C-alpha cells in the first residue's frame, strides 16, 4: 500500500485506480499516523454525503492549508460561515440569474471565432484561445469592462502559478499533515508571491466597484442573509478569489479536452455538428441549447473521462460507518471519482469516448452518485449552471464556424485539476456558409 500512497503525488489517477483494483471499493490505511479511507463505490458516496449533512463529516483538516488562497470562501469555509455564504451566493447562480451574463458569453465566443477567421491559420493553439475566452468572460462578469491592462496579464500569470502549485500543496497536507511541505519549498514560495498578486488585484477591484452595478462583485456587495447582514470586505474578497480560480481552470480544461476528443473522433464530431446545424441561425439562448442533447452528452462524457476533480475529500468528525466498515473519528475520507468514472461495473467500455453513456435513459440506470462532475452533497458546486451554459455557448459558437481535427496524442497531468500535459494544437477548417448565431 505504501508504494501506492507515494504515487498519489506523482501519478494520482494511476494510484487511485491501482488501490481500488488491488484492495477493493473501501480501503482503510494509515500514513504518518494519519488514518485514510479510500472509496470508489457510488453507494458509499451516498452514505458519506448523508452523514456529512448530519455534521458527522467536515472539511476542517485542510482549512488552514487552503486559507492562504481561499480564505473563508465557499471552497474552504465551514460551519455557520459556510451556511451564510452559501445562502447569499446561491440566488446569484440560478438558471434565471445567470441570464444576466449570457450576452457576455455570446460576445466573447463570437469575438474569438472572428479572430480565428481573420488570422486565416489552419493551426490553432486551442488551449490559449479557450483560456483567453474564459478569462475575458470571468473578468467582465465579476469586475465589469475588460481593460487589457498589464495588471490583468500579471493576474493570469499569477493564477497559472497558483493552479500548478495547489494540488501538491493540498495533497501533502492530506497525506502527511504538513510533514511533506519541505518537498515543495520553492514551489510554495512562488505560490505565496502569486497569491499576494492575485489578492491584491481583487482588492483593487473591490475599491473601484460600488454596489450599484450589475457586476458579480456588486451583487455580492448588495447581498443580504436572512438576518439582513451583508458580506464583510474580507468575505467579499475571499469569494471573488474563489470564484475566479474555480471558474477558470476547471472550465478551460474541460473545453480543451472536449475539443481534443471530438478532434480525435470524427464520427462523434460529425454528429455534434449535424445537431448544431439543425439550429440554423437560431439565437443561442439557454432554451435553444437545451435541444442539443447529443452535444451535451459529449460534454458530460468529456467530464467523465477527464474529471476536473479526480477525488473529493472529507474528514470524520465522529466515528461513522461506510460500506459496513467502522470508520474512526479523524479519518480522511477520499472519494475516488476518477476510479469510479473508469469502472466497468458502471460504464460499458469505460476507457472509450462514448457519448451514448448519457443518452436514451442510460443515466437513470446508474446510481445517482456514479457521475459527480460538480461534486455532491451539501458542498456541490454553486456555479454549475453558469459553467454549463458558458461551455455550451463556446462549443456551439466554435463548431458552427469550424471543423476541428487533432493529430497528436496528449496525456493528462494533475494539478488541482485534471489537465493536458501541454497545450493542444488543432487543425481548423472553416465550415462552408457558417454563421455565428447570437
UniProtKB/TrEMBL annotation:
Q: Which Gene3D superfamilies match?
A: Cytochrome P450
Coiled coil spans = none
Q: Which Pfam families match?
A: p450
UniProt xrefs under InterPro entries: Cyt_P450, Cyt_P450_CS, Cyt_P450_E_grp-I, Cyt_P450_sf, Cytochrome_P450_monoxygenase
Which cofactors are reported in the record for this sequence?
Answer: heme
Superkingdom field: Bacteria
Per its record, how is this protein called by name? Cytochrome P450
What is the originating organism of this protein?
Methylomonas defluvii
